[in-house]
Amino acid sequence: MHPENPQAIYRKDYHQPDFFIESIDLHFSLDEDVTLVHSQMVIRPRTTNQTVPLVLQGESLVLKNLKLNGQVLNTHDYQVDKIHLTIPTVPTQSFTLETIVEIKPQENTALTGLYKSSGNYCTQCEAEGFRRITYFLDRPDVMARYTTTIVADKNRYPVLLSNGNRVEYGELTDGRHWVKWADPFPKPSYLFALVAGNLHCHGGKFVTRSGREVRLEIWVEPQNHDQCEHALQSLAKAMRWDEERFGLEYDLDIYMIVAVSDFNMGAMENKGLNVFNAKFVLCRPDTATDDDYENIEAVIAHEYFHNWTGNRVTCRDWFQLTLKEGLTVFRDQSFTEEMTSAAVKRIQDVRILRTSQFAEDQSPMAHPIRPESYIEMNNFYTVTVYNKGAEVIRLYQTLLGKDGFRRGMDLYFQRHDGQAVTCDDFRAAMADANKMDLSQFERWYDQAGTPVVDVLGTYNALEKTYSLTLRQQIPANLQAWHIPIAVGLLGKNGQDLPLQLATETNSNRTCIIELREVEQTVTFVNIPEAPIPSLLRHFSAPIKLNFSRQREELAFLMAHDSDPFNRWEAGQQLAQQVIFDLLADWQADKPLQLDPLFSNAVLKILQDTQLEGSIKALMLTLPTEGFLGQQQAEVAVEGLFTVRQFVLQQLAQDHYTQWLTIYKANHHTPYSNEASAIACRRLKNVALHYLCRLDTAETTALAEQQFTQSDNMTDQQSALSCLVNTTGTAKTIALTRFYTQWKENPLVLDKWFSVQAMSYLPDTFENVQALLQHSDFNLKNPNRARSLLAVFSQNQAQFHRADGLAYQLQADIVLQLNTLNPQIASRFVSVFNHWRRFDPARQALMQTQLTRIIQHPDLSKDVYEVVSKSLN
Ligand code: 0A1
Ligand code: ZN
User: Fold this and answer.
1) Distance, CA 301 to ligand 2 centroid (Å)?
2) Which of 227, 249, 228 shows the shortest CA–CA distance to 238?
3) Pocket test for ligand 1, best of 111, 265, 324 (most atoms within 8 A of CB)
4) Which of 114, 123, 126 has most ligand 1 atoms within 8 Å of CB, for mutation?
5) EC number(s) of the enzyme (predicted)?
6) What is the CATH number of domain 313-446?
7) Is it the case that residue 69 has pLDDT exceeding 70?
8) What is the pLDDT of residue 504?
9) 321-339 and 229-246 helices, crossing angle to 10°
């Protein structure tokens, strides 16, 4: 790129806006050729008698008319460039500004601003998309009252929606009709939304705890009318939960959700009118998996929870994004923990954090949850801001207790309802409500990276004390974090010992150590025998904790820890040790032999009748190649693949009868969406995957049978993903059959692409190349592009082929997407962020592609930022 140097924006440069926009009255005339947007704003200078120019943002707009206080402005009274409208001289008192602009939503493939999806109009304005609709002060600390009139052809677009309440409507003589909406709540422009199209409504209602009736509406393309009920139920559950847990009630008379097929992200919390990726709305047992059901409930809840954490109290500037996102993710995680199983949800969340966020921390895109600068804000909707941000919120709750956290939340809303605020405001509310000093806590907001804590334990048999010494590894220029570490001590019988700190009189089974110094030692008294410590229970902080353990000790914790999270964790650590030792053997050309201790530990889990099924399924799943690679100084691509496959194969053989028993015991549970039925499916499908590793006629027949006979997508997809890794004809038959069955359902067809991209057979890359040519592949549709290419790029051994062909393909795709959809291009190029973690040959191959990309003449800011940081 030879851009006119895309400029970074810095957090320290924040200034209040010079003008506020009190109200905006919008008028859209939607047309197949050009859409006209007429806007009338009441603008107030921040201070009286100021003489600063008014600078509005606007992109890809054609200005047709401009009036100030009703007077048309002459061209020499204002300037327009690619991204601004500047009026050097404006009145010193409130004034009105009217603009008319032309836009072309039908040509908008970036899917930000106003665009078309399956023939319908919709909008996406976060972070800075509103400026692609009309000229505005497009920043979250400018909060205006909106009225919106939409005019469109009545036949094509019978449904016209925007934020707030529908206040007027009517018909025109030319086959067009109009609807006017008014949103009583002032809001930042990123929460604006408009939808127009031919949509079906799945309606319901919710009565708030104060007795107000709220109308709930899920809007979908007509053919999807039978896939909305779960979304509706999820919404009602989320509304109830927020009342009960946080005392927060919904505030409008209507709540609308629209499902669209083309969407860059998961969903968007626009006030009263959420726009959703259809993937997080539509489901039916035969089309959606258990995970899809759970994700839908979680995303619906997430967007709903934003109504308070994000909309009523919003962000002052985009550096504060985690204020709304970290908090809202924490709220949706807590909701799912209560709706499903707390331990299972915690394990799933920690897996995401450790595989994606810890990796981001190790990459050139590493940033604190509150970044200091950005070139393109859309690049900062990251696992760090979202998921680590949620962990940081969880830390408050761990430190203050659930009640203390609630007191902090109450004070936060009491102080800031209707305002645009900062992460510091949130921290102050937590501290003040609990009379606690949280100043050291700011480091979680301004220091990037994963804290590392080394722990040593010493038992003193004479004194009957056990001491833990914890030491933070602090990188240069950083300071010690404030870290709560939850600890338990297990006795020889596997039971928790009562814990009493030398400084306390009462005892507990789990104790929170507050680590604030670089090094601290805590001593437990009255410990009758040398204990086995269980550290960082339920992953009480987003850190890496080092404590050296023998395999026997890990197997012991895996069998006995009363904290289900740590039981799972011990199993993962044991598997990791075993895999890394085997890797050393493989690299030394020694024969591979699986440690019987590990195989037996797995057997014990298989035979444990007390263990809940979903946890059991998780405990029987090995760490991924991606996660294992991250633990290495240099990712051993082939070695990790070979060794991990070997371990899976051995476990399949060693426990063949037990896998079969588990499979059969859980196979006939009838379908339902209850936790117990889900657990049966999880268990049996883990068993099926192990069995199919043996690639025998018998195991393939099991998968085929499940594939043809299942009445639900969880089982069908799972069987298909087993079959794609088999070597006979069953694979082609199943793939053809699945395609024929589901070719009319895009969300299910996405699964067909993904399953093939995930295969571990050596021809996967060639298959992906062929699938790119398939008539159902479409790079413009983000779900479809991700289903094939993002999924493939996570298939470590296949994507990182030694010949670099997959890298070249990925770069080709990035360059195409760069023009079509920069946000998706930037996500796709991010796989190369980790290039320095590979061997020299692969480094060179990836660097070649990065260099090729950065030399592209018209690189978007999105891609430029990621690639330039990667190459630096
Ligand atoms: N605020 C939404 C996520 C979102 C962010 C950006 C988008 O377009 C660039 C779209 C959605 C959420 O957290 O759900
Ligand atoms: Zn969000």
Assistant:
1) 10
2) 249
3) 265
4) 126
5) 3.4.11.2
6) 1.10.390.10
7) yes
8) 77
9) 100
Ligand 2 centroid to Cα of residue 322, in Å, is 9
* Nearest alpha carbon, ligand 1 atom 9: 126
3-state secondary structure of 172: coil
Q: How far apart are CA 531 and CA 853, in angstroms?
A: 56
So which residues are the catalytic ones?
303
Question: Residue 101's closest CA among 40, 39, 46?
Answer: 39
Buried b (16+ CB within 10 A) or exposed e, 431-468: bebbeeebeebeebbebbebbebebebebeeeeeebbb
Tell the residue nearest (CA) to atom 10 of ligand 1. 265
**Atom 3 of ligand 1, residue of closest alpha carbon:** 268
268 Cβ inside 6 Å of ligand 1:
yes
What does the alpha-carbon distance between residue 462 and residue 679 come to, in Å, rounded to a whole number? 47
How many angstroms separate the CA atoms of 176 and 151, rounded? 7
Q: Whose CA is nearest to atom 4 of ligand 1?
A: 268
Domain at 199-287: CATH architecture: 2-Layer Sandwich (3.30)
pLDDT, tens only, 626-682 = 999 999 999 999 999 999 999 999 999 999 999 999 999 999 999 999 999 999 999
pLDDT, averaged across the chain: 97
Sign of torsion over alpha carbons 404, 407, 409, 415: negative
Q: Which of 770, 744, 746 is nearest to 756 (CA)?
A: 770
Total-model pTM: 0.98
Q: Are 582 and 647 in contact (CB under 8 A)?
A: yes
Give the whole-angstrom CA distance, residue 124 versus residue 130.
8
Rounded CA separation 342/75 (Å): 62
User: For residue 136, what is the DSSP state?
Assistant: B
DSSP 340-373: S-HHHHHHHHHHHIIIIIHHHHTSTT---SS-SE
Crossing angle of helices 675-692 and 637-654, in 10° steps, is 110
pLDDT band at 4 (very low <50, low <70, confident <90, very high): low
Q: Which amino acid is at 65?
A: N
Pairing of strands 213-220, 254-260: parallel
pLDDT tens digits, residue range 407-416?
A: 999 999 999 9
Which of 190, 257, 268, 379 is the pocket-test mutation for ligand 1 (most atoms within 8 Å of CB)? 268
Q: Is the CB of 126 under 6 A from ligand 1?
A: yes
So what CATH class is 1-198? mainly beta
Contact between residue 783 and residue 798 where contact means Cβ atoms under 8 Å apart? no
265 lines ligand 1 (CB under 6 A): yes
**Domain range summary for the chain, segments of one domain joined by +:** 1-198, 199-287, 313-446, 452-541, 562-694
Residue having the nearest C-alpha atom to atom 1 of ligand 1: 268
Residue in the structure block whose two tokens are 């290039």: 835
Strands, sheet with 176-187, edge to edge from the N-terminal-most edge strand:
71-72, 62-68, 95-103, 35-45, 19-29, 144-153, 176-187, 165-171
The predicted complex's ipTM stands at: 0.98
Domains 1-198 and 452-541 share a fold: yes
> What average pLDDT does this structure show over 36-43?
98
Strand order through the sheet with 113-117: 113-117, 120-124, 194-197, 159-162
* CATH superfamily membership of 562-694: Peptidase M1, alanyl aminopeptidase, C-terminal domain (1.25.50.10)
C-alpha 271 to ligand 1 mean position (Å) = 13
778, two tokens: 């479409």
Q: pLDDT per residue over 454-476, tens digit each?
A: 999 999 999 999 999 999 999 99
CATH no. of 452-541: 2.60.40.1840
| Location of structure tokens 């035979």 | 607
Q: Give the DSSP H/E element, type plus range, for residue 677.
A: helix 675-692
pLDDT in tens, 142-154: 999 999 999 999 9
